[in-house]
Amino acid sequence: MAKIDFGGVMEEVVTSEEFTLEKAREVLKNEVIAVLGYGVQGPGQALNMRDNGVNVIVGQREGGASWDKAVADGFVPGQTLFPIEEAAQKATVIQYLLSDAGQVAMWPKIKACLNKGDALYFSHGFGIVYKEQTGIIPPENVDVILAAPKGSGRTVRTNFLDGSGINSSFAVFQDYTGRAKERTLAMGIAIGSGYLFETTFEKEVFSDLTGERGVLMGCLAGVMEAQYNLLRKNGHSPSESFNETVEELTQSLIRLVAENGMDWMFGNCSTTAQRGALDWAPKFRDAVIPVFEDLYESVKSGKETARVLDVNSAPDYREKLNAELAEIKNSEMWKAGAAVRALRPENRK
Ligand SMILES: NC(=O)c1ccc[n+]([C@@H]2O[C@H](COP(=O)([O-])OP(=O)(O)OC[C@H]3O[C@@H](n4cnc5c(N)ncnc54)[C@H](OP(=O)(O)O)[C@@H]3O)[C@@H](O)[C@H]2O)c1
């Protein structure tokens, strides 16, 4: 492990220079890795592992779009693609990448497929940490491990293909074989992580649920909408409001922040923008602190979990979700967004 100074706090990370792909292949050479679920994470992780030369099969329920996608990606029914339980039975590492609600529904069947010394792998601490709500309590004679890419499954694949990799956290919840950590790191490298940092199942799920509800999506969507509506209320056109709220952020500023950090961004805009942004940042920070406090408490107490399981286990969850998403798509703001995107030169050809 390499010790890295993160702003004065020393943390250990594992890179592919220290834990090489050759070493990962060696650790995994006798394993059959079954990726259960071919939704968002499943394809990214399965394809990267296959390209990295480890023995991977896919378990997916038959008859739907995800099964067809696995076939289109080159997994062969009866050889490398199986119904979920069949794949789980063949595996020594079960990579549990069904949706979190799907994991709960399938658990009794998957549990029955676990043999002594197998590893049960997650990309989220959800099922294990909220065990009272999920019922996912693994037997004592298996390893329980986690590698959680910090990005969408889509990026897990695209970053692998462009050579950049994606950062992942890793954790061991249960080490039955004494090999749990090396198995975890080998899996982390095999799925294409750029570097891995250590966490616990609990820390992973608390930070992940907070992040996606907060800055990554929930908060971002909320503040963008608030600013757009404010501008519209004050007579600005949809085009102007959308450009000042979203397009400039996604097409210009956030890319620069990604490359150089926020201090650089503040230092490289007009002095007018800089003064105002520096003055207003603490006001926004202070305004949202109570909301973030509520959010973290809701995550910690399991309230968020109850809601996720309740809503996503309903048989008509997809129809309801689609209706909710259609409302956003059809709002003036995001219709204006579609028009702005269509006007980008690359989309006008
Ligand atoms: N999305 C991400 O980028 C991301 C990032 C980091 C970690 N994770 C974690 O990775 C895991 C997988 O997430 P995901 O986003 O890839 O999930 P997802 O796209 O929602 O996965 C859906 C998969 O689960 C299957 N499924 C759902 N309910 C099922 C049920 N009742 N019985 C059998 N199969 C069922 C689906 O099959 P059908 O297609 O047939 O419905 C599909 O293969 C989760 O633990 C998630 O928290 C996800």
Structure report:
By secondary structure, the chain is an alpha/beta fold. The chain has two domains: 2-199, NAD(P)-binding Rossmann-like Domain (Rossmann fold); 211-348, Orthogonal Bundle (N-(1-d-carboxylethyl)-l-norvaline Dehydrogenase, domain 2). It has 18 helices and ten strands. The protein has a ten-stranded mixed β-sheet, sandwiched between helices. Helix 1 crosses helix 9. The protein binds NADP nicotinamide-adenine-dinucleotide phosphate. NADP nicotinamide-adenine-dinucleotide phosphate binds next to helix 2, helix 5 and strand 8.
Our Rg estimate from Cα atoms comes to 22 Å
> Which CATH class of the largest domain applies here?
Alpha Beta
For the residues shown, what is the average pLDDT? 96
Order of helices and strands: EEHEHEHEHEHEHHEHEHEHHHHHHHHH
How are the strands ordered across the major sheet?
1-2-10-9-8-7-6-3-4-5
Might you state the CATH topology name of the largest domain?
Answer: Rossmann fold
Number of helix segments? 18
Tell me the structural class. Answer: alpha/beta
Structural domains: how many: 2
Question: Architecture of the largest domain, CATH level 2?
Answer: 3-Layer(aba) Sandwich
Low-pLDDT segments, ≥5 res: none
Beta-strand portion reads 5-15%
The total strand number stands at 10
Give the full name of the CATH homologous superfamily of the largest domain.
Answer: NAD(P)-binding Rossmann-like Domain
What's the helical proportion of residues? 55-70%
**Distance between the amino and carboxyl termini:** 49 Å
Ligands, deduplicated: NADP nicotinamide-adenine-dinucleotide phosphate
